[in-house]
Amino acid sequence: MLDIAEELHRWVEQGRDFAVATVVAVGGSAPRLPGAALAVDADGTAIGSVSGGCVEGAVYELCQQALEDGETVLERFGYSDDDAFAVGLMCGGVIDILVTPVRATDQARPVLATALRAAAGREAAAMARIVSGPADLMGRALLVRPDGTYDGGYGAHPELDRTVAAEAGAFLDAGRTGTLEIGEQGSRCGAPVTVLIESSVPAPRMIVFGAIDFASALVRIGKFLNYRVTLCDARPVFATKARFPEADEIVVEWPHKYLERTEVDARTVLCVLTHDAKFDIPLLQLALRLPVAYVGAMGSRRTHLDRNERLREVGVTELELARLRSPIGLDLGARTPEETALSIASEIVAGLRGGSGVSLTGAHTPIHHDATSTPSPAGRIGSVA
């Protein structure tokens, strides 16, 4: 539900009652990942989506029912070809959806309200809701902050709160959303309980080095993909807000000097479009040793080979060089700045999601590569929002 936090936070501030349906788990070629949500208020207004249209009508009715009876329910929707009028997913996937009422008198509302406020403000927080287990625990929530403190609780065994808070903290560190199987008394003790952990983290960073026309298009597509985009160039005449109005930040500084002092993490992508050895070499020497998600550099194949030799001369190892995506982007036959930006963005998404970059036509690879409901907290980052 945190994917529609801004709208839901406004509803909470306005005192509205509503019910929210959240994707808990998916299987097969399901259209949305865990955490995707649809909400319906008491007046029938709906926001969000859980399936891209396949089962929205049925989920809408479940939300209305939850508002009436105050019951939290878990429903499964799957593909069915037996009845042309049956509710199901045409893609052939399966989704489990948790429907939770959020009324003024509901026990979980204060915790959910706090989580929505944090997510709407782009603050780091994780919300852990029980989606299956003892009936009296269904829908109860816990909000976990980066420092390990938490609000709310399940009202069951105290060890359950502490264990879930610790696990949710690990999910939050990795920016993950997924489910956790645990015992009602914490660890593996007691009746089995499934917890959905949704992470709200600040937008990942895209840093574009080089204030050229290709950079302008890349900044735009970076914003479209919900990155916080910084444009950096040492030349003040080119690095201007007028040329890059969509950039969140414009920095006039030598690229490697800026990268030395700025904050990056495992979700950060670095796109080097400077195409000039005096900028590229010190920048890539540093970039390839940072724990970031992606490092790509623009240039012809001749430029790439020459740049690699220069990087070896300054001590960059073969293992570090193997991280460099150069020439940058996927082979789309791109020529224009916009096409090139699409090529670069495609390579970033493929790397993030585990895609091959080949055409889906005639291929036997999965369409969706990371639709797991039980991610490892130390695994691949599962979202760019």
Question: Could you give a short description of this structure?
Answer:
The chain is an alpha/beta fold and 385 residues long. The protein contains ten helices and 16 strands. The longest helix has 17 residues, at 158-174.
> How many DSSP E strands?
16
Order of strands across the biggest sheet?
Answer: 13-12-11-14-15-16
Strand content: 15-25%
How big is the Rg? 23 Å
Q: Helical content, roughly? A: 25-40%
Q: Classify the oligomer.
A: single chain
Largest sheet: 6 strands, parallel
Spans with pLDDT under 50 lasting ≥5 residues? 81-89, 371-385
The number of distinct helices, counting runs of at least 4 residues, comes to: 10
Spell the H/E element sequence: HEEEHEEHEEEHEEEHEEHEHEHHEH
- Whole-number mean pLDDT: 85
Helix-strand category: alpha/beta
Distance between the termini: 13 Å
Shape: elongated
Characterise the protein shown here.
The protein is an alpha/beta fold and about 375 residues long. About 30% of the residues lie in helices and about 25% in strands. It has helices spanning about 5-15, 55-70, 110-120, 160-175, 215-225, 255-260, 275-285, 300-315, 320, 335-355; strands spanning about 20-25, 35-40, 45-50, 75-80, 95-100, 125-130, 140-145, 150, 180-185, 190-200, 205-210, 230-235, 250, 270, 295, 325. It has a six-stranded parallel beta sheet with strand order 13-12-11-14-15-16, with helices on both faces. A five-stranded antiparallel beta sheet has the order 3-2-1-5-4, with helices on both faces. The chain has a five-stranded antiparallel beta sheet with strand order 8-7-6-10-9, sandwiched between helices. Strand 11, helix 5 (about 215-225) and strand 12 form a beta-alpha-beta unit. Helix 1 crosses helix 3 and helix 5 packs across helix 10 (about 335-355). Residues about 80-90 and about 370-385 have low confidence and may be disordered.
